[in-house]
Write a structure and sequence with these properties.
Elements lengths: L1 E5 L13 H11 L3 E7 L15 E6 L2 E6 L9 H15 L2 H8 L3 E6 L5 H11 L2 E6 L5 H7 L6 H16 L2 E4 L5 H6 L7 E3 L6 H6 L6 H12 L3 E6 L9 H9 L5 E6 L5 H10 L5 E4 L7 H6 L3 E5 L13 H8 L4 E4 L6 H5 L2 E4 L4 H13 L2 H18 L2 H13 L1
Parallel strand pairs: 1-2, 1-5, 2-4, 5-6, 6-7, 7-8, 9-10, 9-12, 10-11, 12-13, 13-14
Antiparallel strand pairs: 3-4
Length: about 400
């Protein structure tokens, strides 16, 4: 089967996020399928941008054919990012014949972080007489409306809304990262039988091969805390507004009489503000450590007694969440404190920790105390529950096989 996957922000093991297209394609290639991934030359979430030679650059990575479309660079979420999107979609739209002749796809996947890519994907599928699959990462334009307070009558939102509605109508199948999004999609024109839920995944093999040790600076801090008898709760990830980390600072104040400390590893736009906030409040049981290599994440998580992840309250989450970071947590076999109010809760489903309401310092502190009271054996069992769950349901080997069944149906 010839599979053409369009994902504006597609990455790889060389370029960094976004990883899903790469991991799916790698598994499909192993099974004998031909896979071509088309991505933009510039993405704000990649660690390394591809080297570009002209308008179209072809690259072979682990048997996967990549085509990089040259697009303008941008920062943030302003006009330049929208021009980057339009440049990518326009170039695809004007070259549908070239792609049909070059790839001869049996399946075209619009792996969509925004819905405008459905138009070139649909044109390619129609010319190639191929099956069209619309893969939804986030609900656009609902996400910028609810998280960015954008008006439904903003021209950008209206364009995206038309794209979303057309995508549900044009696609033969709709694959959603979000388990509870079906009714929303039906309300916007999708036939109910098109819906398939396929969550984010993790490469279990790659995780097991990630054996890098954390830097000496990190080791010294953690070793000293352990020597002092501290119960360590770790957080590894972005320090951004969406991560609701300021509530941990307040929780630390409530835990000042306990032998418990939080250890944050990572970077992000809110990190400096969070550090100042912790200093102003005299918090001395929260440690901010520099970002570490992805391959050292398993080592960091293994040194913690428990892990924390929190979300903000948002009506958007009623459709479900599918965070990559949480899958890393489950693979580490550590109990998890999960601050969430959403349509799904993996921690609760896997019985691998304590789920609490979001944006609630008192609940965070109570959950920490509850885990501290449990025996080491009880905490180990929680962690193993999570690891067994993620390996059975979220390994890319499992997800890639399920996706192939959707394509073949």
């Amino acid at each position: 089967m010839n599979i053409l996957l369009i994902n504006h922000y597609a990455g790889s093991n060389i370029h960094g996020m976004e990883y899903r297209p790469y991991h799916m394609a790698k598994e499909w290639v192993k099974q004998g399928h031909q896979v071509t991934i088309i991505g933009a030359s510039h993405s704000h979430i990649r660690t390394n941008q591809p080297t570009i030679r002209g308008k179209w650059t072809e690259e072979l990575i682990d048997g996967i054919s990549y085509i990089w479309i040259k697009t303008p660079e941008y920062e943030g979420n302003g006009v330049k990012r929208f021009l980057n999107m339009l440049s990518f979609v326009k170039e695809l739209q004007f070259n549908t014949k070239k792609l049909v002749e070059g790839v001869s796809p049996d399946v075209v996947i619009a792996s969509s972080t925004y819905p405008l890519d459905i138009y070139p994907a649909s044109a390619i599928a129609k010319k190639a007489n191929a099956k069209l699959i619309f893969e939804v990462h986030d609900l656009w334009p609902l996400s910028p409306m609810l998280l960015g307070n954008m008006s439904p009558y903003h021209p950008f939102i209206m364009i995206m809304q038309k794209g979303e509605n057309d995508a549900y109508r044009k696609a033969d199948k709709v694959v959603s990262f979000l388990p509870k999004a079906k009714q929303h999609m039906i309300d916007h024109g999708m036939a109910p039988g098109k819906f398939h839920y396929l969550p984010n995944g993790i490469d279990v093999e790659q995780w097991n091969e990630a054996t890098e040790i954390i830097p000496k600076e990190h080791q010294e801090v953690i070793n000293q805390l352990k020597k002092d008898g501290q119960f360590l709760i770790g957080y590894a990830g972005t320090h951004g507004i969406a991560n609701a980390l300021e509530y941990v600072i307040e929780a630390c104040q409530l835990l000042k009489e306990e032998n418990a400390a939080f250890v944050f590893v990572g970077k992000g736009p809110e990190k400096e503000h969070l550090m100042k906030q912790a200093e102003q409040k005299g918090v001395n049981n929260l440690y901010f450590l520099p970002v570490i290599n992805k391959k050292a994440i398993p080592d960091f998580l293994s040194r913690m007694d428990a892990l924390y992840i929190g979300w903000r309250k948002s009506p958007l989450y009623q459709y479900g969440v599918s965070p990559n970071k949480l899958l890393d947590y489950l693979m580490s076999a550590k109990p998890i404190i999960h601050g969430i109010e959403a349509g799904n809760d993996i921690v609760k489903e896997a019985s691998c920790g304590i789920s609490i309401p979001p944006e609630n310092p008192e609940e965070i502190a109570t959950a920490v105390k509850e885990l501290m009271k449990k025996t080491e054996k009880e905490r180990m069992q929680m962690g193993l529950n999570g690891k067994n769950f993620v390996m059975a349901t979220h390994d890319y080997k499992v997800l890639a096989e399920k996706f192939l069944l959707i394509m073949s149906d």
